[in-house]
Each structure stands twice: as structure tokens, then as C-alpha cells.
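dumping this here so i dont lose it
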């Protein structure tokens, strides 16, 4: 196999996560939907292997870049999700009361926002659709950067996501929180007005996981655990920051994420402070990925990838 420096960095993190996940699953005696996870891991490995074929055998560097990065993205998504669940049940008490006090000081109240949006059901539906574009946006950016041959920019993108996700998981593990949807009820008229991705019932399920933990893991029913810092916000920042300067793609990504800012609150059931935390995590992850890529720059130069980050 022939991995580029940034890819090797991510591969090492993936291997460490995979081993850690396996040890924790065994020690906690948590059952696993082996077939479900094996299918997703197989997709990731297939993409990486296909990328290696096009790099080593066919010498199609751009296609290889896109395929390997997409495979690593899939693998980290699944291993990172399992790792997040290993902190259940939570050791520390949730800090949502504190986060809601900060929201109150900023004049933000989630149910009031939802009631307002319920007067414009079409808008709530648009936000629902936008909310689920986060991962597809990242995948599109991976493919476009790969096919453009921007290896270092692509690998900095991957590193930013990996570092940001691990930071969010660690912060959440130390200071558990589950978002506004877990501590507020909504009128039935609001629930009926437009589709809501994350409802108070979803929040109740999160609180139950926090209290009781999990005894069986399946990709079919994994929930998004983290409220603060909002990883949806991290992903939105990544999309805006790394989108290639293309006359069609760039305005589309910018427009989607202008709506995403509100969708994260409405559809994600977040505290407002969650988003501020997400921006902070992105900034730190972006800076750290830059430092890492600069240290790897000489290795890229040696293999003919001179583009600076």
C-alpha cells in the first residue's frame, strides 16, 4: 500500500481507535451488530483499497486521492461513533443547566424559536432538509478536492475533521450535555406543524442512555450524543472553509450553511452556546491541522506533492 503523509496520519489514528473500541466493547460487555458494522467498514476498506489500486497500478493520482480520502472518512465516522458511545453511562453530571443559563443571558429560548418557525411550516421543512446535508456536503468536498488533485488541502480537511471530532468527544465526556431538546417540551401543535429531526422524545432517549448506558450497539439506531460543542457546527465550518473556489459549488455551499446555522438550532435541538463552542473547536482543530500539515510538508515535497497549505 502507498499512503501519502496525511493519509498515514489518519490511518494511525484509525488503527488506535479501532483497537480502543474493541477493548472497551469487550471490557464493558457491550453487544455489537457485527453484520451492520462489518458492512460499513467493508465499504470504507473497499474505497481505500480501490484508491490504492488506482494509485499503485493505474497511476491515476487524482482518482486515488478522492477514493482513499472517502474511505478514511467512512471508517473514521464509524469508529468515532463507537468511541463516543464508550463514555456511556456518563460519569459526570450533565451541565445543561449551566448552558441554559448562558442561553438565557443571550436571550435565546429554544421552544420560543420552534413556536415561531411553526408559523412558517414550509421554512421548518426547508431547515429539516438542510440539516441532513452536513455529511453529503463533506463527501462532495472530499471528492472535488481529490479530483482537483489538491492533496494537502484534502488531507488538512480530513485532519481538521478528525481532530475536531475527537476534541468534541473528549469535551462531552468530561462535561456531558444533551441540548435544549432534552430539557424542554414542545406544544403538540409545533410537533405537528413541520418535521423535526431531533424532538424532546429524542432528548429523553439521550438522557436514558446517559443514565443507563448501552448494552447493544448497532449502526441502525445510533444517536447523536453531543450537544456542546456542536459537531454539526464544526462540519458547517469545515464546508465553508474548505469548499473549492468553484463558481457553482462555492455559492451552493455558502447558501446551504447560511441556512444550516438556523437548522442546527431548530432541527438539532441545540443550545445557542453549543454552536459557539462548535466554532471554537473548529478554530482549534483548523490551527492544529495546519501545524501538522506544515510539519509534513517536506514529506509531500519528496513525493511530488508541492502544493502548500
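and the seq i came up w/
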Amino acid at each position: 500500500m502507498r499512503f501519502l503523509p496525511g493519509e498515514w496520519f489518519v490511518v494511525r489514528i484509525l488503527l488506535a481507535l479501532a483497537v480502543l473500541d474493541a477493548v472497551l466493547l469487550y471490557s464493558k460487555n457491550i453487544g455489537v451488530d457485527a453484520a451492520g458494522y462489518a458492512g460499513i467498514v467493508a465499504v470504507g476498506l473497499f474505497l481505500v483499497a480501490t484508491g490504492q489500486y488506482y494509485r499503485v497500478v493505474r497511476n491515476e493520482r487524482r482518482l486515488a486521492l478522492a477514493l482513499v480520502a472517502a474511505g478514511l472518512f467512512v471508517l473514521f465516522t464509524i469508529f468515532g461513533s463507537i468511541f463516543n458511545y464508550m463514555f456511556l453511562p456518563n460519569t459526570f453530571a450533565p451541565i445543561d443547566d449551566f448552558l441554559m443559563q448562558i442561553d438565557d443571558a443571550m436571550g435565546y429560548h429554544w421552544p420560543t424559536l420552534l413556536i415561531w418557525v411553526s408559523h412558517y411550516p414550509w421554512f421548518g421543512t426547508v431547515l429539516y432538509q438542510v440539516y441532513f446535508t452536513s455529511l453529503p456536503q463533506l463527501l462532495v468536498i472530499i471528492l472535488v478536492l481529490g479530483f482537483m488533485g489538491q492533496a494537502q488541502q484534502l488531507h488538512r480537511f480530513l485532519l481538521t475533521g478528525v481532530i475536531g471530532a475527537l476534541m468534541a468527544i473528549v469535551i462531552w465526556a468530561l462535561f456531558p450535555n444533551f441540548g435544549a431538546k432534552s430539557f424542554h417540551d414542545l406544544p403538540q401543535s409545533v410537533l405537528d406543524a413541520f418535521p423535526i429531526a431531533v424532538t424532546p422524545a429524542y432528548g429523553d432517549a439521550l438522557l436514558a442512555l446517559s443514565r443507563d448506558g448501552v448494552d447493544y450497539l448497532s449502526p441502525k439506531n445510533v444517536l447523536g450524543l453531543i450537544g456542546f460543542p456542536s459537531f454539526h457546527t464544526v462540519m458547517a465550518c469545515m464546508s465553508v472553509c474548505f469548499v473549492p473556489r468553484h463558481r457553482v459549488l462555492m455559492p451552493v455551499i455558502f447558501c446551504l450553511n447560511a441556512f444550516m446555522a438556523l437548522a442546527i438550532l431548530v432541527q438539532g435541538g441545540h443550545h445557542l452556546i453549543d454552536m459557539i463552542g462548535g466554532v471554537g473547536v473548529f478554530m482549534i482543530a483548523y490551527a492544529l491541522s495546519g501545524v501538522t500539515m506544515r510539519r509534513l510538508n517536506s514529506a509531500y515535497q519528496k513525493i511530488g506533492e508541492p502544493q502548500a497549505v
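The chain has a mean pLDDT of 95.
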